[in-house]
Amino acid sequence: VAAFGTGASRPLQRGGSGFRFTVYAALSVVCMYFDQRGNYLEQVRYVLQGAAYPIQLAVSSPPAAWRWLKESFQTREALRAENTRLRNAERDLELRAMRYEALAHENGELRGLQGALPPVADRWLAAEIVTVQVSGLRQRLLLNRGQTNGVFKGQAVLDDKGLIGQTVHVGPWSAEVILITDPEHAVPVRIERTGLRTIAVGAGDTASLALPYLPGNADIKSGDLLVTSGLGGVFPEGYPVARVTSVNRDAITPLAQVKAAPLAHLDTDSEVMLVWFRADHPAAPATPVATGKADALGELKSGDPAMQPQAARHVPPPAPAASGAAEAAPNAPAGSTQPVPQGTPNGAGPAAPKPEAAPGQQS
Amino acid sequence: MSRDSLGRLLLSALLALVLTVLPLPAWADLVRPQFLVLAVLYWSVNAPRTGGVAFGFFAGLMLDIFQGPVLGEHALALSLAAYIFVREHQRIRSKPLFQQALIVFAALVAYEVVLFAIDGWTGHPVTSPLRWIHTVTGALIWPLAAAILAYGAGRRA
Predict the structure, then answer these.
(1) CB contact under 8 A, A59 and B21
(2) Cβ separation of A205 and B71 shorter than 8 Å?
(3) Residue A207 contacts B where some CB pair is shorter than 8 Å
(4) ipTM above 0.90?
(5) Percent of residues in chain A assigned helix, strand, coil, to nearest 5
(6) How many CB atoms are closer than 10 A to CB A212?
(7) What is the pTM (predicted TM-score) of this model?
(8) B89 touches chain A (CB under 8 A)
C-alpha cells in the first residue's frame, strides 16, 4: 500500500527524518525540563488531560454499563434487604454520633476551648473511579471530578474506612489520584497507641504499606492503628490509614521491618470522597495547602501563629455560655477573664503539632 | 492516499491507546505489550512519510499523560524508536516477520532503556526487573499485530 513513493524518496526521507528527530527530541527534552522544574507545563497537562478523558471514559464504559445494568435489574427483595441494612447502619452511626458530640465537647473543654471545635473536614465531594491502574510499579486512580468541580492538586482522598491517597494531576473534568500504596507515595503517620510518628511508604500492592524508618526497639506491635500525623501538609491529623499486620525485629538489621494493611478498600471501591479541610483548624495539615478559596489563602498567608486566635474566634458561636463556667470548677476562673488565659491553654493545645511541622516538611 | 492512510493510522493509534489503558488484572498488566509503541513502529516501517517521528512524538505525549511521571519522557523514547525504524524501514520491511520481531525486541529494549534512564534522572526510579517484561511480550506479539494492521490496511485500500 505504502510501497510507492517511499522507496524513491529514500535519501530525502532519511535526511528529513533525522532533522525531524532532532527537533522532536529537543522539544521533549525541553518539555521534561520545564515539567520537572517548577510545573511550568501545568496548562499543557491540563489541556492534554482534558483531551485524554474521553478515551478513559470510553475504556471504562463497559464495566460501568454492566454495573448500571446489574443495578437496574436488582430484585425488590435485594433492594429491601439493602434498605434495611442501611437503616440499621444509619441508626448505629447516629448513636455513635451522639456520643461523638459529647466527646468532642469534652475534648474541647480539656483543650481550654469553651465548646467543641467544628469538624476539620469542611466539604465533601463524592467522586466515581473511572479507571484503575494497579500494578507493582504504579497505583493510580482516575476520578470523574476535576477543576470544574473545584478539585485541586494535593487534595486528600478518603473512603468510609480510611485514607486512599491524594490528587496528583487535575484536569478539567478528571483528576488522577496516587494511592497511598504506590511505591512513590509516603504518608506521615502516628501510631495511635503510643503517639510515635513515622512514615508509611507504599509497597506496590494494594494490600500493604511498609514502615521502613522504625528502629528495632520501637514500641509497635501487630494490630496497632496508624493515623495521619498532620505533617507533610496534605492530610489533616487523625484520619485512620492502616493497621499494623506484622512486625519483624531482626537482630542483624538496625531497623524493624514493619508491614501494615491499609484500612480503605483500595481495590474494591467504586466511589471515593474528595475532602476540603478547614485551613484554620488545629488538626488541619501543618503546611498551608492552596485550597483555591480566597479567604482560606488569606488566613494561611498570615502563617502558623494566626492559627490559634482564629481557632478561638471560631469557637464562641457554637459554645453555649453556660457550659464553660458551670460544669468545670477549675475552669471557672479561666472563664471569667476570657481573652488572655483562653489564649494560652488554647495556644498550648494546637501548638503541639507546630514544632513538628519543620521535620515533616523535610521528610 | 495520504489522507486515507493518515486516518487509518490515527484509528489504529486510538485502538492501541485504548488497549494500553484498558484496566486489567495485575498479572496481565505486567505482561501487557505496549500496543501504541508497536503501532508506531509498524507505521514507521510501512508508512514512513505519514507515520514516523512526529507520530511517535505525539503518541508518546499521550502515553505521558496516561502513565508518565514527566511530560516528554515517552515522547522522547518513542520518537527515538520511530526514528530508527523510519531510517531503516526498507531493510526492516524486507525481512521475514520472525526477524522483524527480533528487531522490534531491540527497539523496545532501546525504548525502555530511555524510559529507565529518564525515570532515574527525574527521581522516580523503578528498578524492578518486571518493567522489562513488555519488551519480550511485545516482540512475541509483533507478527500478530503486524498481520492485523496489514490486514486492516489491505482491506481498506
Answers:
(1) yes
(2) no
(3) no
(4) no
(5) 40, 25, 35
(6) 15
(7) 0.66
(8) yes
Q: Is B96 on the interface with A (CB under 8 A)?
A: no
Contacts of B73 in chain A (CB under 8 A): 28, 32
Residue A2: closest CA among B104, B107, B6, B100: B6
Q: Which of residues 109-128 of B touch A (CB under 8 A)?
A: 118, 122, 124, 126, 128
Residues of A in contact with B60 (CB under 8 A): 28
Can you spell out the DSSP letters for B65-76?
Answer: HHH-SSTTHHHH
Which residue, chain included where needed, has cell 476562673? A333
Nearest to A238 by CA among A144, A156, A152, A320: A156
The separation between CA A178 and the C-alpha centre of its own chain, rounded to angstroms, equals: 9
Q: What percent of chain A has pLDDT over 90?
A: 17
Q: Residue B31 and residue B38: Cα distance in Å, rounded? A: 14
pLDDT at A306: 32
Pairs from B103-106 (Cβ < 8 Å, separation ≥ 24)? B104/B38, B104/B41, B104/B138, B104/B139, B104/B142, B105/B135, B105/B136, B105/B138, B105/B139
Per-residue pLDDT band at A53 (split at 50, 70, 90):
confident
Contact B47/A6, CB-based, under 8 Å?
Answer: yes
What pLDDT digit, counting tens, does each position of A86-144 carry?
999 999 988 888 888 888 878 777 777 665 566 677 788 889 888 887 776 778 888 98
**Which candidate, A185, A205, A169, places its Cα nearest to that of A45?**
A169
In angstroms, what separates the C-alpha of B47 from chain A's closest C-alpha?
5
